[in-house]
């Protein structure tokens, strides 16, 4: 709402009808301007949120596949220059589906949020983690070979397997990991991701926690 207060202490009839009409028009245009600015601010905020959601998972706040693919290009280019290894890890949660089916999707969402918090807590600052949907997560672990990744995954697994509380009941999840290495297993992210996914499938099928990709 736009309000104007007109004062004149020299004459009672200082404002004739023309002057008042001009003021009314000015007030109307000013109101329209403010409303337009408000709409533009709301549109800018919505655009910002859409951009955030296009790069981040709305449930967990983790990067999504799109952002992971963009970050991977930079990390792989850096690894090539520095002669470093990169571990690409595909994680599928074990036991999540049963919990989701038993307690419902709302409880399942809370589990995913807690898992995401735990994963971020145990990773190094320069490591990248993304949620690819459902109960699948992908990691890019920079400057990390086989010995290094075994230590990292053991730390992740210990964190995952700590009991969770749902409606007063203690539940537990675990995980199956598939790992592919740059440059040994490939030099392009989607190729490494496919191989890590295949290794994860073999780990899940054979009831193993970790499987490294092998030709």
From TrEMBL:
Protein name: Diguanylate cyclase
Positions of the GGDEF domain: 84-215
Domain of life: Bacteria
Organism whose genome encodes this protein: Thermotoga petrophila (strain ATCC BAA-488 / DSM 13995 / JCM 10881 / RKU-1)
Gene3D superfamilies: 3.30.70.270
Entries under Pfam families matching the protein: GGDEF
Upper lineage: Bacteria, Thermotogati, Thermotogota, Thermotogae, Thermotogales
Coiled-coil regions listed: none
């Amino acid at each position: 709402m736009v309000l104007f207060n007109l004062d004149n202490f020299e004459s009672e009839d200082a404002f004739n009808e023309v002057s008042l009409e001009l003021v009314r028009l000015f007030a109307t245009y000013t109101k329209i301007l403010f409303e337009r600015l408000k709409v533009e601010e709301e549109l800018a905020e919505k655009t910002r949120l859409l951009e955030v959601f296009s790069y981040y998972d709305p449930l967990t706040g983790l990067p999504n596949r799109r952002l992971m693919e963009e970050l991977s290009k930079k990390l792989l280019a850096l690894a090539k220059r520095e002669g470093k290894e990169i571990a690409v890890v595909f994680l599928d949660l074990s036991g999540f589906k049963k919990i989701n089916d038993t307690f419902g999707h709302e409880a399942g969402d809370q589990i995913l949020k807690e898992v995401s918090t735990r994963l971020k807590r145990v990773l190094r600052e320069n490591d990248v983690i993304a949620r690819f949907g459902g109960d699948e997560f992908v990691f890019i672990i920079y400057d990390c070979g086989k010995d290094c990744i075994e230590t990292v995954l053991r730390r992740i697994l210990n964190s995952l397997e700590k009991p969770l509380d749902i409606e007063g009941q203690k539940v537990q999840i675990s995980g199956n990991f598939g790992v592919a290495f740059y440059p040994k297993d490939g030099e392009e992210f989607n190729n490494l991701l496919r191989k890590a996914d295949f290794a994860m499938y073999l780990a899940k099928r054979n009831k193993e926690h970790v499987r490294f990709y092998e030709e």
